[in-house]
Amino acid sequence: MTSFKEQEPEKVAEFLDILDNLKDLPVLYIDETGIDRYLYRPYAGAPRGEKVYEKISGRRFERTSIVAGQVDGEFIAPMIYKKSMTSDFFVEWFKTELLPALKTPHVIVMGNTSFHPKNILDELCIQDKHFFLPLPPYSPDLNPIEQAWAILKKKVTDLLREVPTIFECLERFFKTR
């Protein structure tokens, strides 16, 4: 089923059973990702025998993060941010951006990250008639948004040839979807 040796097959089976029992509801998967921009020059010139000194060191230059939901391959309530994710920040996004974007009840699936306060999120879901379903531990393979992030990161890498910042790349990516 997965390559994570820490994964507990019983918990995965239970998760899949619950998901199957809720198959009449659309499933929204939530995840966060970050993109680092390393600046480098593949080519540089200097007189033979002299070292090239550059202003771009190759060290991390820019970190941009995204949180979003995804239903049937469609991003829901994507938010681009530069600060660190905290429980308060996540709950605020969940309440003010994600839940209002859902017009019908959904199964809401997300990982067990420390800043996902399960009790609060479950309560918010119940209030809005959604079903909160955390992923089993060590089960990112059960969250399809993980593959979407890989595709997004490739497109951002390509877009960085035309747009100066990751933030602008992400804005362009989400506007064209």
From TrEMBL:
Family matches, as Pfam families: DDE_3
The organism's place on the tree of life at top rank: Bacteria
Gene Ontology MF term list: nucleic acid binding
Domain Tc1-like transposase DDE: 26-158
Signal peptide bounds: none
Annotated protein name in UniProt: Degenerate transposase
